[in-house]
Amino acid sequence: MEFRKKRKVDSERRAFNKDWMPKYFFTEIDNKGVCLLCNQSVAVLKEYNISRHYATKHGNYGNNLSEAERQTRATELDRKLARQQKVLEKSTLAQKSSTHASFMVSYHIAKHSKPFSDGEFIKKCMLDVADQVCPEKSQKFEEVSLSRRTLARRIETIGEHLTSQLKGLVP
Fold this sequence. Notes:
Elements: H1 20-24, E1 26-29, E2 32-35, H2 47-57, H3 67-111, H4 118-133, H5 138-142, H6 148-169
Antiparallel strand pairs: 1-2
Helix pairs in contact: 3-6
């Protein structure tokens, strides 16, 4: 008895056709088709799926535009989406760095067996130093969360991570 392997759509390596951008107002982001008008993505990168989305959601959008106007409008929308993504990437990077700093302080507090309430004291000290040394970046120091509960969660996460690493080493 022979079992056939199920076909997986995402493994078909479909390519985005550049003609779809002005035609259906779609672009490709991370191997997914994303509508420039409503920012929804289609499940599979196929022309039928893209055209169906365009016809059902935005059927009469762009009917009165010429080819050149459609191309210009699609390019404008694509640039706008790229700018939005850049803003989100910058804020995500700032959040990651403040979280990383919080983990570093938590690690040192746990390593030296200090009480969790010292995190709030350390934060006040960091803010005072930041105000004197680099006042333009003091807001970034404000974003680092060092409350007792946060430190407890961070230290617990560090402990779980170390435990999983040790379990991986021991057979």
